[in-house]
Model the fold of this input.
Amino acid sequence: MTKPAIKLAAPDLQHLTGDIFVAAGMPEAAAAKVAEVLVWANLRGADSHGVQRIPRYVELIDDGAMNPRPAMRVAFETPAASLIEADRAAGPVAMSFATTEAVRKARGSGIGLALVRQTTHTAAQGYYTAMAARDGMAALSGSCSSPNMIYYGARAAGVSTSPLSIAVPGAARDPLVLDMATGVVAMGKIVHARRTGQRLEPGWAVDAEGKPTTDPARAALPLPLGGPKGSGLSLMIECIASLITANPLLADTFEGKPEGEKHRQNAFLIAIDIARFCDLDLFQDNVRRLVAGLKSLPRQPDVDEVLMPGERGSRMLARRSRDGIPIPAATWSELGRVARRFGLSMPTNADGSWTAQ
Amino acid sequence: MTKPAIKLAAPDLQHLTGDIFVAAGMPEAAAAKVAEVLVWANLRGADSHGVQRIPRYVELIDDGAMNPRPAMRVAFETPAASLIEADRAAGPVAMSFATTEAVRKARGSGIGLALVRQTTHTAAQGYYTAMAARDGMAALSGSCSSPNMIYYGARAAGVSTSPLSIAVPGAARDPLVLDMATGVVAMGKIVHARRTGQRLEPGWAVDAEGKPTTDPARAALPLPLGGPKGSGLSLMIECIASLITANPLLADTFEGKPEGEKHRQNAFLIAIDIARFCDLDLFQDNVRRLVAGLKSLPRQPDVDEVLMPGERGSRMLARRSRDGIPIPAATWSELGRVARRFGLSMPTNADGSWTAQ
Done:
């Protein structure tokens, strides 16, 4: 039996999250950014990338892997590119800075690249590409971490579930945002299934011996999307994000180096300033035509509506902004433990029916 | 019963291909480039993207969709980006030019973008990213065409099997080259299966009514890789390659516009000049460490060796460069028809055992 989820208003959850990270040593602005990105994931229904990560983030700060007050800097730049030394910044802090950099470079050069060296968990990749898309950019971003996914043909972790996200301005307010793991599922989804007790689908994961399993408790590693395609994509993201920044994650782990045991991530974000190449209104009108055409296609029997990348998340965001964010009881009690440690009080449930212990 | 394949030396096949395209109206250099790219695909074992395309390319020239003497030009440029108006050039001609442009821009700016408007079938996408990787670049390229793949949730063609390719310099001579369709398989693979009579794997394709089939003769459309991920990737490639260049392919088809019935493609290629950000020797040494680590992982029971993206193709290229390229009898006889039309003689088989009729 899993306990029922409680429901919380987004501003309350964001406030609590920000307070936790300030208490954990971050400056106000950085803590607010982390809170915004985590709660954004919850609002969009990507709970595996939301506030359930807080205890882990705090643990990363405790053990020195995440730096709450990083000396983040542009280590090298050209008119079109920046290499950012993130100094173990929280992923949302480093990635938001990188997005701003890439957009600024794209404004000047048509295309802009931000390479992010030595950050930590980048959270929901789609947040950053959507942020650039709201600035009129087509944006493409990937990030990578220590091995946590099967490389095609192997029985052990060879690559990470590196997310890949691409976003463009939509016809109206919301951008189109593709945000996909290079695994069949993101590791966060398996962790989330463990927490909620739901079984995995066949083909999602293998156990510690590399054998297929649907038991979330036995699942050790996700399988790559489409076999060699998913693990190949992840490998190429490592080559771009980690090897161009001379901060190899996978090789250090394979060779048993001490750095290979630490939590660290690298990332890249590319922005293309659409208005430099074509009229942005024309672009958006062409998106409208494209979306209208796809939505008019004959549908599979069990499908009510053909959805665009990110559309389900946008609708969920509207609903959860209005109705509150459900938090599984297990996650809530973990958040309570973290809050108590910092002497923080937990917010009351949106409808008043639950109060933090 | 399918007739046995004949075998041809690569230079002979390249020579024949070049002669055909010169006879079809291309300048020598353009014809040689098309021949090089098609035969490269055959050498690497990607026969679906090799010389079996020749009859279709000639047909495209006949009906005016492919321009053998295009007025290709850079329509707009910044220090980091070029928008190329390809004027219906053969894909290999436009894409090779675009790659040179993107690499040149990357040398100056760290990153370079080439957008390619109104080209035709781009052939093996990996050729261009590998070309850039040999120049020390990390390269990322995608292209799109009229709808020929299921969009997730729909029963009809909504997107194309848009290839996505990423390449980086390898540890030694050969780059790592990921070249994947956003479909479970490329349309060319289904066409190739029709030609050789082999059955499709379940989950590859649907028939004209949108129902699953393994019969290559009934297969009408491939399914997207990983459902919404593959069709989402393809959609985003259309947004970047076609909508930023203001040359929408999918929407024109949906709306029944005359342009929507014509064969045309758009593409993009992004190059990152690695040496601007880190020492290229260090990068390549880190690739060596990464590859060594992956190859040392424990393997699945039925797997002899863990392979890198493009490695199978590189080995096939070495073997076929030495032993010749096998051409299915059906393809050979179609090539013979094209050659005869232009009054060209077909080359003798590499080992003398077969002669063109």
Observations:
- The longest strand of chain A covers residues 111-119.
- The domain at 184-223 of chain A is CATH 3.30.60.50 (Wheat Germ Agglutinin (Isolectin 2); domain 1).
